[in-house]
Amino acid sequence: MTDDLFSPLELRGTELPNRVMVSPMCQYSCEDRDGLATDWHRVHLGSRATGGAGVVMTEATAVEPRGRISPHDLGVWSDEHADALAPVAEFVRAQGSVPAIQLAHAGRKASISRPWEGHEPLSPDEGGWEAIAPSATPYPGREDVALREMTQADVSDVIEAFRSGAERALAAGFEIAEVHAAHGYLLHEFLSPVANDRTDEYGGSFEDRARLVVEVTEAVREVWPDDRPVFVRISGTDWLPDRDSWTREQSARLADLLADAGADLIDVSSGGLHPDQQLPAGGPNYQVPLAEHVRAESERDVAVGAVGGITTAQQADALVRNERADLAIVGREHLRDPHFALRAARELDALDRIDVPEQYERAY
Ligand code: FNR
Fold it and tell me: What is the pTM of this model?
């Protein structure tokens, strides 16, 4: 039988009840500089779980303080952070959704103010901090952020920060850990020759540029239980066709390396590395061909998630039915409608295949 949006998906010992995932989305809602989850995170993520999404993923959650994008990002660098996240994971799970966490490091795109405060680079005397990156080349336009090239000791520290972030995420009750290697943040900076000029074993050839994300994935996999899935979000392309950059062909090769490192699903987004990117307009399914490419070309049995411009039930369902992707990852439409999955079930005549909260039954 053909799978559709309301078919469960088995990944290791975890069953996703349907194929809708809430895409990770920064909320910039921690109190100044502490990275601890607040009521906002509990209500925001909790309401997407009451809305029926099979997987509810946190925003980019920094594995160390200098890996935050803004001073208001979530973090998971201490046990106190895990304690603050635990009620989020518990509530999501209690609704029948699978709680997931995106583990992140912002690299050279760290230390900016939040969008509604201008997304401005923050120097250390404005509450910013020194960022680290594969090379000391700033993200264009953000020359005010203090930045230095990572030493080999920094590389080891970052791997350990992802490993211990995953351990804490597990203690907090999350079922899926996603490694954020997209959108021009640290791990993508290592992947792309546009941001990586290193001459050690973490730069140069495809294998060397891929080394860090592979080692991070292995480290997360080592501490993540065998029966729980690990996802990796990648940018399928830099959208910089005129220069030596990260491409969809490299993404498909990377998917194989990540699968060998223990990843169960590749979440395929795109871009974010450089402001010259030639991103398509962002219409319906605008990144789906990249996910499809990875799914078709990967030689491993790894699941693939598609994200970008998925806004309707029919669109999400068709992605799964037509085997273009295994998971429909929905971002902004979930900001507009926390109950996207319940609405989709209603529109697709599948209410008998989703758990409607008893409190909401009279609406369905
Ligand atoms: C995002 N996005 C994003 N991606 C990611 O991997 N980690 C993150 O923390 C964030 N943060 C974030 C915040 C906000 C407010 C938006 C709108 C987006 C990207 C997001 O997950 C998604 O990939 C894109 O929005 C494209 O999907 P949609 O929105 O077209 O469904």
Answer: 0.98
